[in-house]
Model the fold of this input.
Amino acid sequence: MSDFAAVAPEVLERARKIKLFLMDVDGTITDGGVCLLALPNDGGVAELKVFNSLDGLGIKLAKDMGIRTGFITGRKSPAVSQRARENHVDFVYLGQETKTAAFEDCLAKAQVAADEVAYMGDDLPDMVIAKRVGLAVAVANAAPELKAICHYVTETSGGRGTAREVIELILKAQGRWEEAIPLARA
Done:
């Protein structure tokens, strides 16, 4: 996050309350490309995803600082499950045609109110959740309709460290970024 001082005061106020950070996957913590690889000898199809290491570290820092995290995505992907395990993501919902039920489940399991949740997305299916949370975030290259209803738009495009940017924003707004830095580990 290059210019924390330029963040609107109302966004910082919303970020101070955050206890749970939920994210879409394709187009937010990936660049949105879906790479399908046909395996030889009728071995089926494998899906490839590219994740940014900045996001991984950010998600780990969030957890270390007591902010729970979750993925809610429309696709079923073993790569997403693996990334979630690597980063100790608390809630993982794959294959969600609509995201409302998963969101409600996260609220109940995390025992938080909607205004204590940040949600980051990139496209139209994310609007229903963005309208309900305390801090709605659209990535820089998100659909204009989503950007129009979000409280914050990232400086970076999907797949380029957006989760890290949001986590840094939240921790800085909460006055805990300096405390988080020494906890960074590979």
Notes: The helical segments are 9-16, 53-64, 78-86, 100-110, 127-130, 144-149, 162-173, 177-180. Strands lie at 20-23, 35-38, 45-48, 68-72, 91-93, 117-121, 135-138, 152-153. The CA atoms of residues 1 and 165 lie 5 Å apart. The chain has a mean pLDDT of 95.
